[in-house]
Amino acid sequence: MSDPGMTGLEPAVLDVRDLSVRFATASGDVPAVKNISFQVPPGGSLALLGESGSGKTATARALMGILDDSAVVSGSAIYDGRNLLELTDKQMQRIRGTEIAMIFQDAQSALNPAFTVGWQVAEVFRKRAGLSRSEARTRAFDTLRGVGIPDIDRRFSQYPHQYSGGMRQRVLIAIALALEPRILIADEPTTALDATIEAQILDLIRTAHSASNTALVLISHDLGVVAEMVDRVIVMNHGEMVEEGSIEDVYLRPNHPYTQALLEASPSFIGTRAHGSGTGRKEES
Amino acid sequence: MTDRLLRVENLEKHFPLPFLDRVRTGARSVRALDGISFSVRKGETVGVVGESGCGKSTLARTLVGLDNQTAGTIHLEGRDTATLSKLEGARFRSRVQMVFQDPYASLDPRMRVRSILEEGWRANPTLVPRADRTAAAESLLDSVRLPAESLARFPHQFSGGQRQRIGIARALAVQPDILVCDEPTSGLDVSVQAQVLKLLAELKAERELTVIFIAHDLPVIRSIADRVIVMYLGKIVEIGPAERIFTAPHHPYTRALLSATPDPLRIIEKRKSDRIVLRGDVPSPINPPSGCPFRTRCWKAQDVCATVAPLLADDVDSAACHFPENVGFTPASAGLGRAL
């Protein structure tokens, strides 16, 4: 609809039309998302970019069916011929994690503090893939090694609190990608991490995304992270889609006044302008 | 030199470890600051960057006197602040003020804005006579672009950005010379952050303030700092003029930190500079590596890095590294820093 060039080629793996989310509160309805439409091509990538309160997380949570009970959702989100927004909890349960997986901002609270990390990763293979205990354990070992957990023999039986923030985020990525989902929704996956750890995690997500046919939907407030990870971006403000396009178009030729203001406000743009174009100076390796 | 408003020499801050950690690690304390030296000239903005646990917040707290140093000295206009009398100490604290990171936790929820702003005047009664305080408080609010009606309100009635303005007004109330800002914008949205940074720059010019600005966000530092200090595990690994640090970093850690920060324009224009992704996590400050603290993650590390701790050649423009990068490369503006 908004981009005929893309929909014309191959059917989108996720087709969202007129998605709206309202929250019923004591002081009346609060609209959080207003008539959002977008398509995600198979294996493609897309970011929802916005500041706090722009509705980007509510959009992701609506797609996963994990919004609060006070939320009223309308519109449609077609995945594999079915409207995700109309599925029952039980049907949704089968899709979550196996076909559409999500990684969260706060890896600390997304893991269960009472079970070892290895057990939690193995659980995915036992419960969702029906593997035996020992098979699941082997697969969990491989998966954790694959996301770069060091000293895996010792780390496997440790608890989440014994892991650093970056390692916990690696575990979440391992769990999300364990069953090779077709869509990965990453909600501010690196916001709580230091810059050098952020670089590691973004690298890991990018590698996983390009190695498999998993489509990536990234939720972020960070212009730099978005530019680095995806091809297309949707800028959101107060629950509305204010602009959609390729990274180049949106960042270099923003049409909407809000996008322009957001770019103006970003220190990475200000800094570059103030000091000339010295940022990307090629260095010998 | 007379224009050195603040001079910090070999500053150390150790925090004692709880008993069990002492037994487990064999260490007695965490060296949050491990021999920090630098000086600040009047009117400049010094940016301090580093990742969590590098000691940058401890540095801020020690500079304003919230924590006492374990060793080393802090000189304000040539006076050692550790030797001040009680009365002089109160004056010192009004001259070096802090803007805190969390605008929610740093304002007392049960105090009205008027009391928050006037608290410093009650501690230093000679600053503003009682009769003038309402007018002075209103003018403070005006200078941080908040309406005078705010005086009667409580912190919870303001947004995060507005609260940070109140935090800034509170710091300015006692007419400081130096403002120490500890991640003042890290909890704010980009557009609000831009407003607060702009406000700080304006206030700095209006009031001839000297600013020490602590942040983990390199683009923010780049947008406001004249000089930059890069910290890693309680030590300064590199210090220099902002332009030089950002264009020709000498320390491998600085270079890795710069390349780790996603820069939208670099990516769009496909100027793929070599992206350095460091392995592993920052080591625990309880048991820092021997020699160079960065050697465990450094791709250039050799045997000497484990045995000999590299030192800063000076506290103006140098890097603590045995194998520095970009040596011989001098951007045109680097000479400015040397002129100090």
TrEMBL record, chain B:
The keyword Zinc does not apply. Keywords: ATP-binding, Nucleotide-binding, Transport. GO terms for biological process: peptide transport; transmembrane transport. CDD domains: ABC_NikE_OppD_transporters (cd03257). Residues 6-258 form the ABC transporter domain. Coiled coil: none annotated. SMART domains: AAA. It comes from the Bacteria. One of its GO terms (molecular function) is ATP binding. PANTHER family: D,D-DIPEPTIDE TRANSPORT ATP-BINDING PROTEIN DDPF-RELATED, TRANSPORT ATP-BINDING PROTEIN. Belongs to the ABC transporter superfamily. This is ATP-binding cassette domain-containing protein.
